[in-house]
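haha ok so turns out i had the wrong file open the whole time. this is the CORRECT one, sorry everyone. sequence first:
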Amino acid sequence: MAGGPAEPASKCSPPIWSPQPGQTCWCDHAGLLWFAAELGALAAALHPPEPVLAQWLGSVLLGAMNLEQTKYLNLDDLSLLLGSVVRFPTPQREELKRLSAPETVDAVLRWNLAHLGVVGSDLYLDPHTKHYTGEQNVLKGWCASIGCADKAMHSDFVHTARGQPIYFECVDNFEDLRARFEPLVRRMRTSLQWSADLVLTLVIDRGISGIEVFERVLADPALHLITWQKGYKAEPWDPKQISGSFALERCRNRVEDVRLYQFEYVDRPWAEHPELRQLVVRATNPQGKTAI
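then structure:
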């Protein structure tokens, strides 16, 4: 990595190493320079700035998925790029404990949101149940990854319509999604500093069906919900009832290999609850096979 003239560092930039003109130094992690501005902005997300946040994000980008794996990084070279770094897992763990607070999480989530630009109000809530291997006493639940019941943890991830993550929570197995849903939305509004009257549409593919949930969503003018109908049985398709249609193109490994998927839908009141809308969709894949 060759050095050039040092440039004045902006407030949001990390203390990037600025060698003297003509000086040359090998650096194992020089690729992090691609993310210099973002790493610096993350460090400044908290007041006062916390450079260790940039170190941890940089470590993840370099392949260290946890604090123990940072021992495989070249911390001397990392310090050239980020300034001083916290060495060894135990001191890092102490720093993590110090920073483990809602204020830190909220600041990082808002930093992430600011870097995404306009995200829109259509969001996807993706709940997962994972096997919990920590020492805390949490309830047992079914863990598909191990094929049996054991300590379980719910992880609720919220994404934009383009798949960009903007919010998440990890909670105990005590409550199912129907109980977690509305408190999660309220906490997300608070964390991301969204107003209570900003209309949000949440798309959820499972675990939310329940008349009591639908009734509460109907009573909230700032919250819309789209989900699968549990137990739906396909009906004969009537072309006369079609409300609209659209198509999506999907590129595969080669840019010329484009697949076309076509959709038709019926938009009508739901017979079980006329205040709710039912969207019945027929999808046609590139081979002409249809499904409702």
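DSSP finds seven helices and ten strands in the chain.
again sry for the mixup
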